[in-house]
Amino acid sequence: MENKIVLIFVLAFIPTILGRNATTGSIVVDVTTTIAETDENFVCFTLDIWPHDECRWSKLCVWDGHASMLNLDLTLPIINKAVQAFKSVRIRVGGTLQDKLIYNVGAGFKGTCHPFQATKGSLFDFSVGCLYMERWDDLNNFFNNTGAIVTFGLNALLGKYKTQGIQWEGNWNYSNTEALIQYTIENNYQINSWEFGNELAGLNSIGASVTAAQYAKDVIKLREIIDRLYNNFQQKPMIVAPGAFFDEKWYGEFLRKTGPGVVDVLTHHIYNMGAGDDPKLIYRFVNSTYLSQVSNTFEHLENVIQKNAPWGAAWVGEAGGAYQGGSPHISYTFINSFWYLDQLGMASMYNTKVYCRQTLIGGFYGVIKSSTLLPTPDYYGALLFHRLMGPRVLKIDNNVSSDLRSYAHCSRGRTGVTLLFINLSNTTDFIIDVENNINLSSGKRNASKGQRMKIDSPREEYHLTPKDGLVRSSTVLLNGNPLETTKEGDIPNLLPVYRQSNSSIHIAGWSIAFIVVPHFVAPACN
What we know:
Belongs to the glycosyl hydrolase 79 family. The protein is an alpha/beta fold. It has helices spanning 77-84, 133-146, 175-186, 212-229, 248-258, 281-284, 288-292, 295-308, 336-348, 377-388, and strands at 5-10, 14-17, 20-23, 26-37, 43-47, 89-93, 101-103, 129-131, 148-154, 161-162, 168-169, 193-196, 238-244, 265-270, 274-275, 313-319, 322-323, 352-357, 368-369, 374-375, 389-398, 404-411, 417-423, 428-438, 458-466, 476-478, 481-482, 497-500, 504-507, 511-517.
C-alpha cells in the first residue's frame, strides 16, 4: 500500500450542548495529492445590464435603485471598498440584455443608439439599448481603481434574425464589437476576457437560441478579430463562451466545431434553487440531498471538456441561487450562504476555475443590497473564502452526517490546510478532534495522541452565525460579533479566534466555519 498522510477529524456521540445534540464520526482529508485546482481569483461577481424600470414582479421592480452597469454610481465608497477588500477579484459584466446592447462607437453606430426602453413584445420586452463610450470610460476607471479583473459580455445576436420559435439565424455582424475592442485597446483598458453571448445555447436558451454550428462560426470570427487587434500584445484576452445553461450535446458539438486555439473558457449558468417567489424555496437551503444534485452538472461539463477541449477551462459565469432576480425574502439573508458557500466548495472539486456570483449589486441576489448599500452575509462568506481557501483542492471523506457539508483546500499564501464546514442542522452540533495521522509503513490510521499537532501550535477559527439565531437575518456574526461597515463604507476586519490545534472544534447548529490548520505536514500543498 502506498504511503499516505491524512488529516483526521474524530467524532463521538456526546451529551446535549445547550439543548442540542452533539454527534460524531470521522472525517478524513487526504493531504497527499490534490484532486482539482481553481484559478487564483476563483471568487467572481457580476454586474448586470438591466435598467432600473425592469419590473417583472407585480408592483416590485427588481432592479430599482440604479444598480446595473449602465447606471450604478461608481463613486460610491461602499462599492469601491467592497471590491478593493479582495485586492484582486474578477467582475463579469453582462447578462440577458447584453445581446441587445450596441456600443456608441464605430461607423454606422456612433450617435444612433439610445437607452433601453420597455417594449412589450420585443425580445426580452426591451428595445435595443446603448453603451456610451463615456460610460465605458467610467467603468474602466472603476475597474482600474479597484483592481478588478474584467470579463465583458459581447452582443452575439447583432446581424441575426428570428426564424421560428426562439431560433435565430444569420451570420454575426461583428463591426460594432470590433470598434469597441479597438477603442478599448487605444485607451489602454485592460480586459482579461471577452465573453460571447448570454444564454443563447441549447435546450435551455432564454428568449433566443443559436445553433452550435452557427455559434462556433461566429466565435471563430471573434478569435480572428482578437488575434488581429491584439497582434502586438504579449498576452491576449481570453475568449469565453457560451454563457448558457449546460446542454451536453450542444456544448460538445460547439467544441468540436471550434477546435483548438479558439475558445479558452466554457461558461455555464446555475440557478438550481428555483424561482424567487416559490414558497417552498427556503426548505431547499437546508436539504443536503437537494444541494448535491447540481454536482451532476459540474461533473458532466468537466467530462465534456476533457473529451473535446482538454485545453479549455470551466467557469460558472453566472449563479444567483434563485432565478427571477433572486428572492426578496431570502437572497440577502444568512440562509442563502448555505447554498452559496456550498456551491463554491462543490464547484472547486470539479476543476471549476472561476465562480461568478450574480450579482455584486443589483436584483435581490446582490452581495451588496442595493436598497441599503450594505454587504450581505454572502459578501463576508465570499471574502473569507477568497482570503483563506487556496487554489489547490483536497479530497475529503465525510461519513459523519449529510447535514455537515465539508470541503478542504490548501491554505492560501501559507502552509497548512483550510477547511470549510456548513452545518445545515439546527438540532445538532458537531464536536471535532483534529489529529495528524502518519503511518508510512502501512497507510493505516494511527490514532495515537503522540501524532497530534504541537500543543503550542494555534489554529484559526472563523465561525459565521446569524444574528439572534434567525437564519433569515441579514446580519451575520463572526465569532459572535456582528459584521458592520463604518459610515465611510469601510469593510470590518475579519478576525479569527485562536485555539490550540489539538483541542476540539465545535461546529454549532445552523452555522458556517472556516478552520485554518497551519502546522502539519501536507505534501500536496508544498
